[in-house]
Amino acid sequence: MSDDKENSEEQGTDKVESGLEKNNNEKNANKTSGSRAPSRAKSRGSIGDQRKMVSRAGSHMSSRPDSIMDGLINRDVGADDDRPGSAHTISSETTGGWDTDLEIDEVREDYDATGRTTYKEACRLNGVIPVSYFLRHIGDSELVMKHHGLGPAGAKAIAIALVTNTTICKLNLSDNWLDAEGGIAIADMLRENCYITDLDLSENKLNNSGAKAVCDMLQQNNTLTHLTLAGNGFEDKSAEYFAEVILNNNKLDYLNISHNDFSEAAGEILGPAIAENITLKHLDLSWNHIRRKGALSLAKGVMNNIGLRKLDLSWNGFGNEGAEALGEAFKFNSSLEELDMTNNRISAEGAVLLGKGIMVNESLKTIKMAKNPMQTAGGYAILKAVKENTNSAIDELDFSTIQVNKDFEELFNETKETRPNLKVKHGGMQEEVKPKKQLNPMVKLQRFIQKNNLRLVDFFNDFDTDGSMSVTYDEFEIGLKNSGIDLSDDEIQYLISQLDSDGDGEINYSELYLGYAKK
């Protein structure tokens, strides 16, 4: 056994030596060959005339030119394969000494155009949990994320992801407690994003700081056309920022800054800006506290504006003075089509003053006057103004909650003859109040005596202080009032005139008794 083992080892040694001898002969032959210039020493990273082509398993080699594919032969699976991540090498005589990057071992990640990867990383940096709803809908054209409780940090993460987003055109982030910090993040995003055209940030407590950031952004952004910022606690200071936007931004069609804390001063600031704007089509200033000088300034702005189509001033405090100013504005404005003046403390007098402008206006189509204390008389005045204006375009009047009477109904029917498409909403017909039947004063006197178990003579004696069985008018009147009978002055005078049958200026017991007995 040991002899056989020794023989086999000797044979193996001979084969190795034979192989080495063969390789040395080949090398010597190459050195003496004159067909090629001597090659430089090869490093592990260099590629020369006989360096192998490199490819990665699973690579798209089929896309290489056929001349290169034909030259890929003899795969070297030697020592290089022991390196982590190394690729097979292939020798070829046809490479012609080409340089190639096929042995570079880089793994490139595909770019995530959706922004999901960016959003997840932004959430990690801001310490918030990614919102799965946002990840699912980031590719939609309209993203509605109301009531998600994002907070300032969540808003920052979303803003980072939306900087390069190209799919979302309508974004609703209302009621998410963004605060001023979150509003600033969204505003910064919109300086770069040029695809979002409709933004809703209502009910987010942005306050004046958030208003300034948004308005600064609007001075640069040229894509936003609809902006809703209702219920953010904006005060009169914010009106200065919005006035600049209304003056300089020529892209906004719709601006909603309702349910804020704008007061008289804000109206004075916004009025001149509205007068100069020509692009804004719909402005909502409802549910603020604009009145007095602020109302007058806004009315003057409407007078000179040539672009507004719809104006909502409901739930402010314009009063009769503001109604009169708007009536004057209607005489000159030729663009406004819809006006909402619901709940503005306008009485019948204010409605008459507003009607004077309606009587000559040719552009208004809808007027809403519900919840104003103008009663049926105010509604009648406005309807009459519409009827008398042959060029009026009004086709809808809203007097909801205001009851009307027969006179109003008759005027409406007359107006319908020339304006069959006119629609009028009101609070229904007033019930006819039937006058109560007057109770005879003597009947009241009888009921009082019976209720108190009195005798008529005893009742009279209380008046007759001198015992003459006769009393003057004054004594009788004072006695009736002191007795506690529910009689008005008119009823007492009526009773005296009926009892003094002989007209002597006094009432005796016999006259009282006869009158009492008749009833």
Short characterization:
With 519 residues, the protein is α/β, with parallel strands linked by helices. The protein is built from 19 helices and 16 strands.
Commentary on this structure:
With 519 residues, the chain is α/β, with parallel strands linked by helices. The protein contains 19 helices and 16 strands. It has helices at 2-32, 66-70, 116-126, 132-137, 151-162, 179-192, 207-218, 236-248, 264-276, 293-304, 319-330, 348-358, 375-388, 406-418, 441-451, 456-461, 473-483, 489-499, 509-518, and strands spanning 53-54, 73-76, 89-91, 142-144, 170-172, 198-200, 226-228, 254-256, 282-284, 310-312, 338-340, 366-368, 396-399, 423-426, 470-472, 506-508. α7 (207-218) runs parallel beside α8 and α13 packs parallel to α14 (406-418). Mean pLDDT is 82; it is low at 1-13, 15-20 and 22-95.
How are the secondary structure elements laid out?
Blueprint: H1 2-32, E1 53-54, H2 66-70, E2 73-76, E3 89-91, H3 116-126, H4 132-137, E4 142-144, H5 151-162, E5 170-172, H6 179-192, E6 198-200, H7 207-218, E7 226-228, H8 236-248, E8 254-256, H9 264-276, E9 282-284, H10 293-304, E10 310-312, H11 319-330, E11 338-340, H12 348-358, E12 366-368, H13 375-388, E13 396-399, H14 406-418, E14 423-426, H15 441-451, H16 456-461, E15 470-472, H17 473-483, H18 489-499, E16 506-508, H19 509-518
Parallel strand pairs: 4-5, 5-6, 6-7, 7-8, 8-9, 9-10, 10-11, 11-12, 12-13, 13-14
Antiparallel strand pairs: 1-3, 2-3, 15-16
